[in-house]
Amino acid sequence: MKSGYFQPLTNAYKIAWTWWVILLSFQQVLFYENNLRTNWFQISILVFLVFAFYFLVRQRRFFAAEDALHFSRDFRLGMLKIDFAYMSSVKVTPRTLRFIYIGKEYQFVVLGKSNQLLQNVLKENKVEYTTSSLKRSEKV
User: Is the whole model's pTM more than 0.85, yes or no?
Assistant: First the structure.
């Protein structure tokens, strides 16, 4: 069983990043409104933001088995099993993996060796996928 790392790109994940930025901005506004002095409320917001940042950027693992991909869920309470037979519209770019599994669209950020691993596993299991790479335009 091979494994790699990924980051989810779900709507909830994007909203969590947006709220993190909003709370960080709010904390900074309070800090400057109080003439660069800290108080317990600002420190508690900052501690919450540090924990939230950790949970947003920590790497999650996926495992490639013979017939499926297994993506870990938050807090490692379970695994999301994706059978290769039910995957459709698979698109692999240098940074992302996007596919539809039983009517639901999934998108993950997968970089470097993990991306290569996914491409190899998809080839081994004869899953049709498209690749997209950004080509630099030539200067005229």
Answer: no
